[in-house]
Amino acid sequence: MELNIFELHNLIDRCLGEDVGAGDLTTNSTVPAGAVSTGFILAKEAGVLAGLPLAEMVFRRLDPAAGFLALARDGDLVERGRILAEITGKARAILTGERLALNFLRHLSGIATRTARLVETVADTKAVIVDTRKTTPGLRVLEKYAVRAGGGNNHRFGLYDGVLIKDNHIKMAGGIKKAVLAARRGSPHMVRIEVEAEDLAGVGEALEAGADIIMLDNMDTRTMRQAVELVAGRALLEASGGIEEETIRAVASTGVDLISVGALTHSVRSLDISLDIKETKQI
To answer: What is the DSSP string of 202-268?
Structure first.
């Protein structure tokens, strides 16, 4: 998934507006206006990097002439102590942009790191790790980008680019079959239809209705294996609901095609990344 540079500029401006407001009181009162600094972005723990180009955009937004030398790339597995980038520019701009740049880097790298760990756990199975819509409002494009940086895949981006019929849709439509048929009639022919099933009876009904993808919602691994046998490749099967790092290997071993993990984005721990100023001089 490519990042839209125009959307990113707008996002950065909104975030800077939230943080800086009318001005950085601390930096503007303690750092001379003409000071120029060199700093380094440093990984303080091992993980998978994501968001470095965004950090560069933050610093350049505050100082268009700033120098930014990337020493790693998004998707890299970086070790503790590795220098990720060197920044040279107006000292005030570097300090003002420090927290926003690091917030992006830490959060997105945390997502990429957790994703990579889960991808590695199921590497010798056919299961593909995918994200969900359980993202931070306003940051979905970045968080889904981070999932891909970690080797995962994206589920639908929003309500507009994929059909996922869940339990409440099924209730209101009058059952799985009616819901699938209605979605088929109401969606473009290029859009695949996914429906949630809570048991094997629901899997059979979804299959009979012609669903393209069947979500196995909160099923135990024994039932998942039975669903795989029942479907026999006639639809994609997605395991979802309460899947943890400790259980994902067993889920993948059932033969499902996809495993969606909301925790990739909704409760991930940030990676520890810092910025250290090494030199400051007055011009």
So the answer is: HHHHHHHHT-SEEEEET--HHHHHHHHHHHTTSSEEEEESS--TTTHHHHHTTT-SEEE-THHHHSP
21, 32, 268, 269 from 59: Cα distances, Å: 16, 18, 25, 24
Is the model's pLDDT at 1 over the cut of 70?
no
β-pair type (77-78, 83-90) = unpaired
**Helix, strand, coil distribution of the chain in percent, nearest 5:** 45, 20, 35
Name all domains of the chain by residue range, CATH numbers in brackets: 5-118+269-282 (3.90.1170.20), 122-266 (3.20.20.70)
Q: What is the pLDDT of residue 281?
A: 83
Structure tokens at 192: 């695949």
- Burial-class residue 199 by CB neighbours within 10 Å (0-12, 13-18, 19+): middle
Question: Measured on CA atoms in the order 86, 89, 93, 96, is the torsion positive or negative?
Answer: positive
Whose tokens are 């799985």? That residue is 176
The pLDDT assigned to 240 comes to: 97
- Cβ neighbours of residue 36 closer than 8 Å, sequence gap 6 or more: 88, 89, 90, 91, 280, 281, 282, 283
The 10s digit of each residue's pLDDT in 76-95 is 999 999 999 999 999 999 99
258-260 and 163-165 as β-strands: parallel, antiparallel, unpaired? unpaired
193 phi and psi angles, rounded to 5 deg: -105, 125
Q: What is the pLDDT of residue 140?
A: 95
User: Taking the C-alpha atoms of 237, 248, 263 and 231 in order, what is their torsion angle to the nearest 10 degrees?
Assistant: 10
CA distance 129 to 4: 24
For range 248-270, the mean pLDDT: 97
Active site residues: 99, 134, 166, 196, 217
166-182 b/e (C-beta count within 10 Å ≥ 16 → b): eeebbeebeebbebbee
